[in-house]
Amino acid sequence: MIPLSMHNLFFTFKKSVCAALLGGAVLLSAPLLSLPVQAETLTDDGHPYDEAAEAERLAEPVQSNTLQNWPQGPSCSAEGAIVMDMDTGAILYQKNIHEKLYPASTTKMLTCLIAAENLDLSDTVTFSEEAVNSVPADGSSIGMDVGESITVEECLYGILVGSANECANAIAEKTAGSIDAFVNMMNEKAEELGCTDSHFANANGLFLENHYTSPHDLALIASAFFKNETLLRIGNTPQCHFQATSTQPDDFWITNKHKLITGEVACEGVMGGKTGYTDEAKECLVTGCQRNGMRLVCVVMKEDSPKQFTDTVTLFDYGFSNFSHVSPAESDTSYTLKTADFLTEGTDLFGTATPLFSISEDSTVTLPDSITFDEVTSSIDDSSVITYTYGEGDSAVTLGTAQLLKNDASGDGSAVKTPSLLSRVLGLFLVSGISGTLFVNVPNVLLLVLAVGGTLIVIFEIRALQRYRKSHRGRGRRGRRATPLPKSAGPRRGYELPEEFGRHYYD
What we know:
The protein is α+β, with helices and mostly antiparallel strands. It contains 15 helices and 20 strands.
């Protein structure tokens, strides 16, 4: 045991040492405390902001602006951006649209599309341990616990309104049996939709190196998403109320982070969409919008808040202000005419019958207001699908497609193979009747007869003129040979032919 006096001495020594160490620490840290503290710049939603990186993205070119006579699009600070007509597939605005970028939670649009196509809305989704615990605690969630259950419809609301990562996992397991099996379905569906720049590795969009897509592919996915009535309804919901049940004990509200859906940023005709953010992806936004019969989808990727919202509004205004729909059935005369200029159906012999071949009435192309339909190029494939494009080479833009149809007696059309050149030529002069009888197309036949007759008359006149000129040249030559001088004749002056010589020559 230490005596009391020694104990006090030891305690006093320990206090002195601690005080000395504390004083030294203060002295050493004093220069550091005097240095100015540089605060990190944040966006409006608290994410890191790099002004130089944003300026660099803003300076990158907009590829659609290089197309001759194409409406000039606005600048955009996103790394990649696209405006696409979801009905025709026409790309109205493009900036790095095939660059592979991280999609973050916009991935969930594909997740919900597959689930909606394969599940009943009233089915029950039970949350497994993997579905709940394999996502970070600070990620987007609606607070589902292991063992709790909600319906498929509620799960879709949780994903699209609350961006809930655990709901995306749970519905993936419900759809495919496991998350890995669902990922295979995601990549198969992306390929089916025409995606060429994508590879998906999870159902919620949390960062993985091998989980990426492009603005173009995301627009294709979104176009299919907005054509699904269930997702169109759920995906345009500003707020959602979850009520307590026997399998889910909490009563709560969730609010959408998409400011065009909630109305915090005004935009006419919003159809819905999805937000997304990770540190690697930055802000991503997908939005659908409808005005004046046109439905456009806008995708911006790798941008800083709040510009993903304001740029989207600007790009929609550009699209709706500079483009409109045109009907190929009314504008295209290169494959069929409204009069009977080639194979037609009906009994009218004067060119007013229904064409045997026609372009589908419901087909549409998206045309810039700065060009006319005559400037559009078209091609047709073996399935009689006509593709309309503008521009040349790699910069050519597809404006839409149409189906070439064969009209039957009832006026309904069915797809046919492309009519051959011979069919088109014969169709100028023959009309196919409803009963299969061939009639003569009188106006065209008369025109042919007049053309052929006129050509023959011209040829006859030319030949007659040639014969006339040839005969006159021959007579002139014979006339000069008619009075030759005999070799024995003397000087021509004063010479007279003997009477018998002349008589012999002309007999």
